[in-house]
Design a protein that fits this description.
Elements: H1 19-35, H2 40-65, H3 77-100, H4 115-131, H5 136-142, H6 145-170, H7 172-175
Amino acid sequence: MRKTTLATMYGIGLIRIAPGTAGSLVAALLAYPILLLPMGWAWLTVGALLFTVLGTRSASKYMRRYETSHDPSEIVVDELVGQWLTYSCLYGWLAAIAGNQGVAVRLIGEVAPQPLYIVLGFVLFRFFDILKPWPISWADRRVKGGFGVMFDDILAAIPAGTVLYLIYFFMPVVLGNMETIP
């Protein structure tokens, strides 16, 4: 039996059906209460960076222990990092815009998340993580080791967060905008 570690998000990656999707779902569920905190997007970004460092180390150990050289499906800490960075892109950009529009400094980053955007972020991240368009596919093939496991998911978060932001920006009438906390 495989040992549960941070790399598998303590067993989530050992689920036999769609472990990456399960890891992303747990990451999305964990992201929501963090985004409700003041400056939640910043905490989520710091958390993603922290898990990038810890996840790289844990993924490397896991790969050495089970003698595998390419991104094994059991390692899902990379999904947590990519999912959180997807939300960080949207809410970080919204906080920056709020700051540029003269919103008081204490309010920057205090943008209430809507569950719809949490769901859309989940779907978009999974889309880019599974299809791996260039340069994500390049990174997946070329960057090896624990960091290679993490890096393609970090790259997948960039287009996912960008598309999520564009949906927010261009479809506010259809989907409804987030409200800043007064």
